[in-house]
Amino acid sequence: MEKKRNSPPMIPLRKQTKRRQKAANSSRRAGWGDVVPVTWVVPSGKSYRRQDTRRAERKAMTTEA
């Protein structure tokens, strides 16, 4: 029969050194994958946007000339 290798005992994360805790925590927070972590907000159609009216005015001026 073969002897089993003794693996080192499992040490709880809270009892490990700060460096090892940081490494373990950062490995869990690896990334978002295919998810984009930006919250997109759809602007309200009722709100007045001065920038849009200026763009429309400029567009009208360039098409007339």
- What multimeric state do the chains show? single chain
Strand content is: under 5%
* Broad shape: rod-shaped
Contiguous low-pLDDT stretches (5 residues minimum) are none
- Count the E strands: 0
Task: Average the pLDDT over all residues and give the rounded result.
Answer: 86
**Rg measurement, Å:** 30 Å
- Count of helix runs: 2
How does the major sheet shape up?
none
Spatial gap, N to C terminus: 94 Å
List SSEs in N-to-C order.
Answer: HH
Structure commentary:
- With 65 residues, the chain is mainly α.
- The protein is built from two helices and no strands.
- The longest helix has 15 residues, at 50-64.
- The protein is rod-shaped and about 90 Å long.
- 0% of the residues are buried.
- The model has no long low-confidence stretch (mean pLDDT 86).
What's the structural blueprint in terms of helices and strands?
Layout: H1 18-28, H2 50-64
